Structures are given as C-alpha cells and as structure tokens.
Amino acid sequence: KKYKKSSLSLSLSLSKLFRPKKKTRNNKMSQMDISTRTEEGGWRSKPSFMTWRARDVVYVMRHHWIPCLFAAGFLFVVSVESSIKMVSESSPPFDIGFVATESLHHILASSPDLNTGLAALNSVLGVMQVSYIAWTWLIEGRPRATITALFLFTCRGVLGYCTQLPLSKEYLGSAIDFPLGNLSFFYFFSGHVAGATIASLDMRRMQRLRLAMIFDILNVLQSIRLLATRGHYTIDLAGGVAAAILFDSLAGKYEANTRKRQL
C-alpha cells in the first residue's frame, strides 16, 4: 500500500493523532505514517524524529498548546525535584496547603466554638452528599453514583491501611465532625472531597448544573477547612477528586458492559 506523507509533531506525534485525516477516492480514511513506503505490520523506514520539520513545531504550538504547556511544566518539575532539599526526619511534613491556611488555623485553634460550628456545617454537607448518592439509586433507579462510591471507598480503605500516615500534631478535631467525630481515620485520600465530587459529577451528568456548582463551591470551602484543621494534606484532597473521576468512569464502563451482557 502507498501511504501519503504527513507532518508529524514533536510531542508524541500529536499531528498524527489530532490533524483531520484526508479521505481517499474510495471514501476511506487514509492512514498517516512517517514512511512513504513500508510493508504492513513491518518496521517504519525512518525514525519518527527524522521527519520532524519546523512547520510541525509551529503547528503543534498553535493547535496543541495545552500539551506543550504540560511539557514545559514537566521540564520545570524535573528541575525542581532534582534540586529541592528533602524534609529532614525530625521535621514535620511540608504541605503548601497548611502554609496557605496558617492564619485560619490559628483562628480555629483559639476559637473552639467556631471550629465546632464549621465542623457542624461540614457534617451537613457530608449528610447531603450521602443522601444524594443514595437517592439516585433508591428513588431514581440510577445506581452509577452508588457503584462509584462503593468502588472508591473500598479502594480508599485498602490504600489507607497499606500506608498509615501519622496524625498531624496541629490537628483540630471536633466531636460532631462527619462521620466519625474524634475517632481515627485514614488520611489518603479524602473521603469528604471524593464524596462531594461523586455527587457533583452525577449532577452534571443529569444537567443539574446549578446544584452541581453549589456542591463544587461547598467542596472548595470544605477543602479549606480540612487544611486549616489539619484534617487532610493537600495531596489527600487532590487524590479525592482524582479518585472520584476515575471510579465514576469505571462505574460507567461497568454499567455499559452490564447492559451489553443483558442484550
């Protein structure tokens, strides 16, 4: 077969992945390859980087600026990671979220009633997200959010048990904090943030956009409080969001495969 020449990008051949493919006369999409002639299933005649041209760089920077931005971020992170000073064994963990909420932490530490009030409000949000997830299954007959929660919190329990992190010495607990009060809990990842994210994702899927926005705002405020009380590290919050998105996707695939088997 003959393959048409095409411009390839310098970032994982992005032009090959994202450029519109030209149709041939028989109305089939032409295959994009770096070699002008090669046997099917064989090795390419040229290494990919030998086909890169200046116009490919310009094309990628104009049309795929987001991967380019992440590529620059990757290089920056590599340089920082290789030169940063490690935290000593005798020092507490460094968390930029703790640093950003230092003043709020002092306010809550000096005002136990305020800390208790915020814990109560946070508990209301916890009850709301659990109630919504249960409602979607028991009342609306849509089990995806519930399946997501079951997948997610099982995984959280396994990871939390495998890597048990010490409680911060600055932790400000409350007897009415959702769901366990002052009992022990796993740090990684945040179940508070993950549960609110699961509910928000379902709301967006059902076009309940205003309600989803309210939950997102409350989730951000909840995250600030968790950092200020030292109830979670920043990585726990980010991990909660990422885990909710991942397991929501897996729950969707589980539902789709179940429907296929039934059909």
TrEMBL record:
Superkingdom of origin: Eukaryota
Keyword Endoplasmic reticulum: no
InterPro entries reported in the protein's UniProt record: AtPDCT1_2_TM_dom, PDCT1/2-like
Region feature (Disordered): 24-43
Stretches that traverse the bilayer: 118-138, 145-167, 179-199
Domain AtPDCT1/2 transmembrane: 94-253
Name of the protein in question: AtPDCT1/2 transmembrane domain-containing protein
Record keywords: Membrane, Transmembrane, Transmembrane helix
